[in-house]
Amino acid sequence: MIDCSTLVAGRPFLIAGPCVLESLDLAMTVAVELQAIARDLNLPLIFKSSYDKANRTAGASFRGPGLDMGLDWLAQIKSRTGLPVITDIHEPRQASLVAEVADVLQIPAFLCRQTDLLLAAARTERIVNIKKGQFMAPWDMQGPVEKIRSEGFDRIWLTERGSMFGYNNLVVDFRSLIIMKQFGCPVVFDATHSVQLPGGRGMSSGGQREFVPPLARAAVACGCQGLFMEIHPDPDKALCDGPNSWPLAKARTLLSELAAIWSIPNEC
């Protein structure tokens, strides 16, 4: 396993990849290109993609290749690129299986208060990235953090991904990044899910991709240590979260801008 705590210690870092594993070739293409960009910008990269999107709006929506095939693909990407990987878990039983491949286990936002899931993740001794629920105040994330720490484990990241603002809309309160830092965990900003319009297309979610750059710039200026982005070669044809995914062809330009902002001393 790759020691991501050492890799990102005190440094800005990037979590990025396609929302869901659509194919091994597509995921590998994104991983290799992002690795080159991150290397040039001196940003540690953790490759992200999901083997199963268990909370799709419609039951008929594409979910991914499933646990077994998805973990095999992630293992192949990790072997070829040397990149650490992060992926979601949805049930306690998945934690130990996913930990055989993933360097970081991610708790989806809708599941951030699920005690058994959090404890199972902690027991794997992998870093646990908890995405703040859209229904949670930032100070309420102390509860999930303390559940993890109750297992004697303290390698926790917290990710801001926007809060529900009426129907089918999210808004980002950037005070959240500073508040969650008080728990002593690296704080990540999810620049792509924060522009999602949940259920905004009726039987699927919409998104406002054009707002990814300004929100990402603001979050970096506010002092987030990590940035989370779903990146796809052709977002308009993506099988999941296309409207809020960032195009791979534009990733280098945006990430270069963000790296420059990160280089400015920040006292937040």
Automatic annotation (TrEMBL):
Subcellular location: Cytoplasm
GO BP, sorted A to Z: keto-3-deoxy-D-manno-octulosonic acid biosynthetic process
SUPFAM superfamilies to which the protein is assigned, alphabetical: Aldolase (SSF51569)
Family recorded in the similarity comment: Belongs to the KdsA family.
Lineage of source species: Bacteria, Pseudomonadati, Thermodesulfobacteriota, Desulfovibrionia, Desulfovibrionales
Enzyme class, broadest EC rank: transferase
Name under which the protein is recorded: 2-dehydro-3-deoxyphosphooctonate aldolase
GO molecular function, one term: 3-deoxy-8-phosphooctulonate synthase activity
Keyword Transport included in the entry's annotation: no
Organism: Desulfomicrobium baculatum (strain DSM 4028 / VKM B-1378 / X) (Desulfovibrio baculatus)
